[in-house]
Amino acid sequence: MNQNEGHDGKLPLRNSRHEQFAQLVAAGKTPRDAYISAGFSAKGASTSAARLLRNAPIQTRVVTLKQAVSQAAVTRAAVDREYVLAGLKENFERAMQHQPVLDRKGKETGIYRYEGQVANRSLELIGTELGMFADRSDVSITNLSEITEALKAGRERANKAKAELQNERDNAKH
């Protein structure tokens, strides 16, 4: 019976080299490199690593570790995003004179200073992060050429219609 059999992936594998292999694969190493780094022989490493990855407990452990790494990254990103947005909001509030200026000791100085540029920039960055503004850079050269051609064709039709109208007026006079 395999010493890792019945493993749910939450706890480390009993075989320390299998555990190290799983961690290295989950961290992004190629199975071959992970196999060698875990202390296995380099001879036939690709084949042996592929065989190990087919082992259900190892496969489960790799998936569990990858999910844990992914979740940690998402958590860090959310905390970072939240922190930045909170800082931008605080900058906006202070720039709009909603909060007093503090001295070095943290006491209010009685001064409220308006800084419009800081307030506007904070709002701009918050709005950009929240996807509130349309991207105006979608006009490509191809679209620009198509628009130019359509305008040119429209002008030609208008000039032709104008000329025909002028001819009709001239014929009506004679």
Description:
This protein is mostly helical. It folds into 3 domains: 16-67, Arc Repressor Mutant, subunit A; 69-129, no CATH class; 137-173. The chain is built from 6 helices and no strands. The protein has helices at 16-26, 31-37, 45-54, 56-95, 116-129, 141-173. α1 (16-26) crosses α4 (56-95) and α2 packs across α3 (45-54). The longest helix has 40 residues, at 56-95. The model has no long low-confidence stretch (mean pLDDT 83).
Classification by helices and strands = mainly alpha
How many whole angstroms does the radius of gyration measure?
Answer: 34 Å
Oligomer designation: single chain
Classify the helix fraction into a percent range.
Answer: 55-70%
Report the mean per-residue pLDDT as an integer.
Answer: 83
Keywords:
Arc Repressor Mutant, subunit A, 66% helix, 6 helices, 3 domains, 174 residues
Summarize the structure.
66% of the residues lie in helices and 0% in strands. With 174 residues, the chain is an all-alpha fold.
Fold topology:
Elements: H1 16-26, H2 31-37, H3 45-54, H4 56-95, H5 116-129, H6 141-173
Helix pairs in contact: 1-2, 1-4, 2-3, 4-5
